[in-house]
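Subject line: Sequence and fold of a protein, written as structure tokens
Area: Proteins and the way their chains fold up in space.
Start of record: The labelled sequence and token lines come straight after this line.
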Amino acid sequence: MAGPVSPREVIERERRWARVATFGAALPIVLFIASLFTRAAVDLPSDPLFPAFFRALDEASGSWVASGVLQGIAMALMAIPLVYLFLAASARSGRVLKPLVGFCVIGPVLVGLQAGLTAMAQVDAASQFVDQSAGVGDIYTLASDLYDDSSLRTLANALGAGGALSLVFAMIYTSLWASRTGLVTRFYGTLGMGLGASLLFPPLLQLALPMLFLWFGYMALIISGRLRKGRPPAWDAGEAVPWPTAGQEPVAAAASAGGEIVEGDASEIPGVDENPNAARRERAKRRKRKRRS
């Protein structure tokens, strides 16, 4: 059975994988922006009803699928920095449950698959609609039925449901312990937990998703040590450096200021830092006592 890992070994291991984790944290935001530009090239009608949407989608199916695939890859790549941060936290605290690292992989990968499969399901339904809509009276019902009966859409929804729950748990749990061990600031950790929880509410997705990619982009700066003020001290210590509570001196500042802390009892040295008039007053008091006696 392997023994405990020393802080030096933790630091060396994290340095070996830092470049991969930085790449995995920075690339998703690039791919996400590229997916937005690709999707913007599709001339979608302002009418959100299926028939008009499907006709426009059928004409630009390649761009639509490419956008979904790019977004799916961006989501799946989030697993790399999320696993890296989880393992860094678990190396600094024995209270982190290591088997739960699987959620850091399952969540991003399944959500990424959902993004790609959903785009393909929409294009497939649009193609079928264009082929079957000629001579059909109720084209709205036809469009709705084609999309609802799509096997790709059913698969995408099933994968997405499991992936979303896994990603929510991974974001909340990892951000919580990264903050407790001092790997990220309290604000950044709280923001990560909030973004993870927001994925459960579809109305917030349009705002939460871009912010989630920005959260990982900032994580790339933390992992690579490119922050202007430097990254939290727990990274270079190889062990937990919890953030101080109100009124408590930072651990890192105390250590760097005085080196090792020496415990012991202190006694006052006579004559040091005393008032220079104290001795004169004491002699005057003694003379008064002699006169009275």
User: Anything to note?
Assistant: Residues 7-40 form the longest helix (34 residues).
